[in-house]
Amino acid sequence: MFKTTLDQWFVFKTIVEENGFSAAAEALNRSQSTISYSMSKLQSQLNVQLINIEGKRCELTPAGRNLLQSVYPLLEDFEYLEKTAHFLANGVEARILLSIDNIFPKDILFEAIRLFSEKFPLTEVHIDEHLRFLPSDDNAFDLAITISEDGLVPGTKLIEVNLIPVAHKDHPMFQEGHDTYSFEQLASHKMIFYQKSFQSEMENAPTIPGKIWSVRSVDSAISALKANLCYGWLPEHAITDYLESGLFRRIKITELPKCEIPLYLVEKSRKAKGPATSYLAEMLKQCCERHNRP
């Protein structure tokens, strides 16, 4: 059994913060005798002098100062625990599992989470990233941002991610003197291919064996281009800074097909959805809507 209680430590903290027993009693809406008794019992149980009283002033002893610093995080944790219990009692989820396709713009994602956290600060959002995430993939999630599957629309359309062909500014193809390239000409150069990331027309483009390098994320593809190893079709939003700085150059292709990947918001279970999950879904929709405006 513990010798002391959280309430005693809370009273001690309040006495120090209010600089006296009388002010602490007023702040806690208790009698001054109750405050004095709680403080006296705490010191007695610890067998340590925590404060010295000089007239109406209270001063921390070295031991009191040390213990007060140690008890602050404990009281904050307990306050957090009670707030969490209050949220849970009112049906607010403690955790939301959000599965997203790797190409979803991260600035939009974290802006939505920032807005969500202002209203639900105690709900954790666990983000699970996948490459070309499909609604039928065997993953547990509360919300998911996915591509379509077999031409079916799995949920609310959020955004279309535009893929463009780019390479390092010093890539050999820019020394060949071509203004534009055909797919057949590009086939002689190594291409980075983040698995399952293209639409069928991209996957069926002419290639030469040994000229395809496969990675599992957009970040890895960008790193490969920065090393001037290959060219690739990358999400435009992910490489804007590299294009503006001149490190990457856009490749001009004859009869360039439109390569946009629509992403959708999928809700695993509408019936079991709590208020936090519903609000996060709404924030994702609103942030994408603002991004899509011309």
From TrEMBL:
<protein>
    <submittedName>
        <fullName>HTH-type transcriptional activator AllS</fullName>
    </submittedName>
</protein>
<keyword id="KW-0238">DNA-binding</keyword>
<dbReference type="InterPro" id="IPR036388">
    <property type="entry name" value="WH-like_DNA-bd_sf"/>
</dbReference>
<comment type="similarity">
    <text>Belongs to the LysR transcriptional regulatory family.</text>
</comment>
<keyword id="KW-0805">Transcription regulation</keyword>
<dbReference type="Pfam" id="PF03466">
    <property type="entry name" value="LysR_substrate"/>
</dbReference>
<feature type="domain" description="HTH lysR-type">
    <location>
        <begin position="4"/>
        <end position="61"/>
    </location>
</feature>
<dbReference type="InterPro" id="IPR005119">
    <property type="entry name" value="LysR_subst-bd"/>
</dbReference>
<dbReference type="GO" id="GO:0003700">
    <property type="term" value="F:DNA-binding transcription factor activity"/>
</dbReference>
<dbReference type="InterPro" id="IPR000847">
    <property type="entry name" value="LysR_HTH_N"/>
</dbReference>
<dbReference type="Pfam" id="PF00126">
    <property type="entry name" value="HTH_1"/>
</dbReference>
<dbReference type="InterPro" id="IPR036390">
    <property type="entry name" value="WH_DNA-bd_sf"/>
</dbReference>
<keyword id="KW-0804">Transcription</keyword>
<dbReference type="GO" id="GO:0000976">
    <property type="term" value="F:transcription cis-regulatory region binding"/>
</dbReference>
